[in-house]
Specification:
The chain is α+β, with helices and mostly antiparallel strands. The protein is 35% helix and 25% strand.
Length: 301
């Protein structure tokens, strides 16, 4: 295992997140960058196994790759470099989109494990960061870190004023399923943690020029620029799957939740509030279908 010890020394200062497994998928090394992205400390990960499912990678369809379809297994089996985009489960419970690259490694001509390199590919919302830097906290929801309704009414109209005529604005109206029951059963502090986890999962898995707004209570509004019906429905379904496959881990034993999503496209001849109201109506239709659903409504429904 001389090569492994050299790799550990080499990877300790890397900016890329890296962990190393043996052929049984036992984690032998977990570098500081991996801890930073995942939230898990080295001592929590080393000597555990991938299939213990702490990172709990899923794909766009919610398939649990650590249990079936693991790139590490394929890399060791075929002695080939494997690459993919997956969503890891942060220690705090939200989902983070990462690019993974798995490289088999050998000693004396024999495969003895694999190295997984992963990078956070979350698109940063530069406007949100700028507002935080400028201390414009009146436009940021203090609980979730999302934009608030004041931002929607005061800043957003200016931001889209120069949007090309042919660009469509996608509207997602998201409501946490059975949120009142969560508050009643577990208390409002637990409800806050659930809302923060869901908000981060949504915020971290959109484009940098999309907008996520806490609309009120457990209602979250997502505004997507330059999309069509296929795009907006794909994003809504992706977010639904990611939330469904996440757990609020800061809560003892974890707590799983789902969301209902109403979706529409703003017509150029209508106001944004009209489109939001239609998405809100679509969300209630999703609720009526039993929760954990996505419903799209066009202007002419």
């Amino acid at each position: 295992m001389q090569t492994l010890e050299k790799l550990k020394l080499l990877f300790e200062s890397f900016h890329e997140a890296i962990y190393i497994v043996d052929t049984e998928r036992k984690i032998l090394y977990f570098n500081p960058a991996a801890s930073q992205i995942s939230g898990f400390e080295k001592n929590e990960m080393v000597n555990s196994f991938c299939f213990d499912n702490r990172l709990n990678h899923v794909d766009d369809e919610g398939k649990q790759l650590c249990l079936d379809g693991c790139p590490l297994v394929e890399s060791i089996k075929t002695n080939q470099i494997m690459e993919d985009f997956v969503y890891l489960h942060h220690k705090n419970g939200h989902r983070v989109r990462v690019h993974v690259r798995v490289i088999p490694y050998e000693e004396n001509g024999k495969i003895i494990g694999a190295i997984e390199v992963f990078t956070d590919v979350t698109e940063r919302n530069l406007l949100l960061e700028e507002l935080l830097i400028q201390k414009k906290l009146s436009l940021i929801d203090p609980l979730t870190g999302l934009f608030n309704r004041r931002f929607l009414h005061e800043e957003f109209p200016t931001l889209i004023k120069g949007m090309p005529e042919e660009d469509r604005l996608g509207v997602l109206f998201i409501d946490v399923d059975d949120f009142k029951l969560i508050n009643d059963r577990h208390g409002h502090l637990i409800g806050d943690e659930v809302l923060k986890t869901i908000s981060k999962t949504i915020q971290y898995n959109l484009k940098g020029n999309d907008f996520v707004i806490r609309y009120g209570g457990d209602e979250i509004l997502v505004l997507l620029r330059n999309v069509d019906q296929d795009n907006v429905e794909f994003v809504a379904e992706k977010l639904r799957i990611l939330v469904k496959n996440s757990v609020t881990r800061s809560i003892k034993q974890g707590l799983k939740t789902t969301i209902s999503v109403g979706v529409t496209l703003q017509d150029k001849k209508e106001s944004l509030i009209q489109a939001i109201n239609r998405a809100d109506h679509a969300m209630y239709l999703a609720k009526s279908k039993g929760n954990n659903q996505v419903v799209f409504l066009s202007k002419d429904y």
